[in-house]
Amino acid sequence: MAVDGEGIAEIAIDTALDPTGAAVVILAGELDSSNAASLDAAIAGILAERPDRLIFDLGELQFMDSAGIAVLIGAAKASDVRLRNPSRIVRRVVEVTGLSHILPIEP
Amino acid sequence: MHSADPEALAPPAATGSPWPRTPLRASVVALLLGLAVTAAFALTSLALYHQSEERLLRLRAHEVGSVLTAVVPSLQTPLASAAELADATGGSAQKFRSFIAPYVGPSRQFVSASLWRLGTSAPAPTVVAGVTPTLASLPGKARTFFAHAEHSPQLNVTGILGSSTPSLGYEFSTPGVEHGFAVYAETRLPSDRRSKLAGNSAFSDLDYVLYLGRTRNSRDLLVTSLHHFPITGRQKSVVVPFGDSAFTLVVTPKGPLTGAFFADLPWIIVIVGALISLAAALMTERLARRRLHAEELTTVLDRVAAENHKLFTEQRSIAQTLQHALLPDTLPQLTGMQASARYVPAAAELDVGGDWYDVVATDERHVLVIIGDISGHGLKAATTMASLRHATLAYAVERSSPAAVLGKLSDFVNSSAHDYFATVLCVSIDVDAHRLTLASAGHIAPLLIEDGEARFVEHEGDVPIGVAREAPYRETTVSVRPHSTLIAFTDGLVERRGELLDTGLERLRGAAGGQQVPLGDLLAKLVDDLASDGHHDDTAIVGIRWQ
Questions:
Q1: Any chain B CB within 8 A of the CB of A2?
Q2: CB nearest to B537's CB, from A1, A62, A76
């Protein structure tokens, strides 16, 4: 699947705690195979705290390739995952890959 | 794998002289230019120095000349007055002595002053003040002198008299007086004729030679500040009228009149200029060497870049070879059906991609088409792809339905720990019935071209392989018209960063429609149009055409 041929893409990863007890991971920039491992490491740290739920806020995420989706799927295997504010581009990728049930989008 | 030869990458060793020719030439040019400019400045400075020295010396000579001119009245006036007095008093000795006394003495104007009667054949002094005149002891000289002086209306000068105690004599007689008196005075000259001007004098920076008369005859030397003469080198002479004779004054500067600095300036310029030129030459040399070194480095870097490019091309070719080795060599060709496929590696990517495809004839009338894409890249993705591909082939040979193939594949992947997922499309083709059945594990639905019109087969995909256990896969069966074409592909063909997936899908649909062309040409066209320049992802595309 998609691979960036021009070095490491820029991504900002922020985490916060929702009042409901959910951990929120806010992603901004581009998520692809060049930086997916750093997100994977960040998620491992968050999951160690055993949050009730993991919410990925994708409002500022412009691009996500299959390596990024693989990280989200990995998180979904360990916790209850929701996507928040995905762009149309990301939303379509999730739909087309049949992941709407694994990575449900917040209403 | 080719390893770089370290010798080939080392900068070329300097051969022969440690001073390469090119930098040396540049620095010599810089040195010569610098020296030429220095010489020009030094010569200009020297010329200006000489010019101002000449001018100053001329001015000083005229100043000294003016001072000398003032001497004449100071000698003539007392003599003229005394001559008139003598004429008026009939040569009164007492009157003459009392008048002339203030002028005569060892440290005064005259050492001797005397009164002589004119018009006699043997002139002799009638009254003498001070020492006996030297002229009195030279009767021949005295006769000639007074014979001339009698008719001369001005101050008459004897010339230098005597040798042990040289003297200079002056005579004045009132013009137009018959048988009158002449007043004669003598001044003693220094025996060695040497006299220094006073140290604080305005002319202390000059040496001089004073001659009596209009020529520089050493016999006529009156006084000088020099030990050796005539003067050589820079000099100026002035002739100052002195009675019936003249003084010839020659002056020469003791040192530079404009000051030592201006005399030294040309040399200072030469030394400083030479040093600057030398420094400029050295700097040029250094810069030139640096440039040469940089050029050598550039050559080395170019060589390294070429080497890298070669290695990269080789690696890429290795990756492609591996990819092709993992993909089928030939596709089954059944009666009434054509199959074709293309694989395009990502541009500028070394890694082996995770895309794969297979076309398997399950019997003489049925074909199973499988196309898949594993998340990630590299050798790990490639080996995963290989294992998935072989598992899928096994399920295909078992004549499993598309949904069953995907279900088994999912079970296979979930049976062990894994950190990837794969999208897989499985299509069963019934050649005779013009029918296809497909199941999708998160893979993009294939394109169907019927009568020149392209559309995506409507089918909602299920979860990708490796995402969820107990994943149910649904099937869709579609009947197609004769000569229809099915195009299955991976997302590299349609996905563009920052673009909605539907835009890419629509681009593909537009490119695939229209007049029917041979299947191979169609796939080549789609790859060229959609996956050619600088695409980031590898792309697999499979085409099936009913005849």
A1: yes
A2: A1
